[in-house]
Amino acid sequence: MTSYLDNLTDDPVRWAWAGVWAAGFIAVSLWAAFKGRRKSEVTSEYLVLYASQTGQAEEIARDNAASLATGGRDAQAISTDKVTVAQLRAAKHILCVISTTGEGDAPDEALRFEKTLMREASNLAGRSVAVLALGDSKYDQFCAFGHRVFNWLVSCGAEAVAPAIEVDDLDAAALKIWHDLLTALGGQETVHEDTGLPWRLEARTCVNPQGSHPLYHLSFTSQMTEWQAGDLAEITTPLGHRRDYSIASLPEDGRLDLYVREVRKANGERGDGSGLLIEGIQVGDSLPLRIKSHKGFHMPKGDGPLLLIGAGSGLAGLRAHILQAQARKVWLVYGERHPEHDGALADEMKIWRDDARLARLDLAFSRPDHGEGQYVQAIVNAQAADIRSWLGTDGAVLCCGGRDMGLAVERALACALGQAWVDDAKVSGRYRRDLY
User: Fold this and answer.
1) Of 178, 202, 254, 336, which residue is 20 to 30 A from 221 by alpha carbon distance?
2) Contact 317/227 with Cβ under 8 angstroms?
3) Which residues contact 174 (CB under 8 A, 6 or more apart)?
4) Each residue's pLDDT tens digit, 268-282
């Protein structure tokens, strides 16, 4: 029998050609690897870094990068979730648009950045830095994460061209300061203002006319039909403020549904956003609405079971996910004030449970006529074992509603699943929140 080794040649010419081919193969492989690395780590002189929870910071950052590019600058916008130390060091100017969520927390997409890069003492000497910190002064830790990013960059040796610029609820005056700074760096105006397309108000109904805090269901129609579960509709109020509302329907429904809670100011007047939607326009009128992608609250990947948790108007953001889930098993935990006066949305969920659209439904009412009131976080605490079993290894959690409710739910989830699960699920996209 002739072995494979017997077929090898002693011809030196053939061995020489084999060496040439081998060397060529190695060279091409190294070039491809280098090219791939360069492609994945594109560097720019102006790096616009963003950390966004609802998409607002990302939108501003991309507009800023476009403005700098229009002015002839080499600029790119990149998320804190994607940036590398090499990209930071390669940039000469680091501009940051940083949101703070919760009580001083980093947005979910910035958690890995804060726990890895921000714990290193990188050498950023010779780079200039500026930070636009987005936040809401209603919360004690106003713009806290933006300040942490600013302090870290300065501690790494970067030179601050200005103190961190705080922006309270997209305040126009603060944004003008940032705009002027961008112009000084070479940015030029770009045409990007988008106030939205006209949407016709087809119906408006108060779903709890006897409730103490009126909740309205509004339906709009338009030729614009593209969005997905988790996305937002933005309006501009008469005072120029932007307000976002979770979309409660899908495009195939043929309409855009919103649930709007009436908000009252200290002087008794309706809030700018709810006032416009509840009494400022009439059925048949058109209102500019801008559809905003809210990728941080899109459907988690995979086909594992879903646990949806919300209260009040927070059902809007969850309702579209229930419609989109289809083959995925869905467990909804939903809370309202009073089962009779505020139970209309809960009644619809009962129908969906009976139709098997929901695999499980738990309701919590904080102010029942009889018995002790209950909040959704109490259900999470009480059903901890069932929640662990339900989620298994591939389940995901979506939470939508008021910020206080969301924080209480997160504490309950940490008790049920462990803080490590919560932290990892935020980074991996298995735990998504839309809180306001």
Assistant:
1) 336
2) no
3) 165, 166, 167, 168
4) 899 999 999 999 999
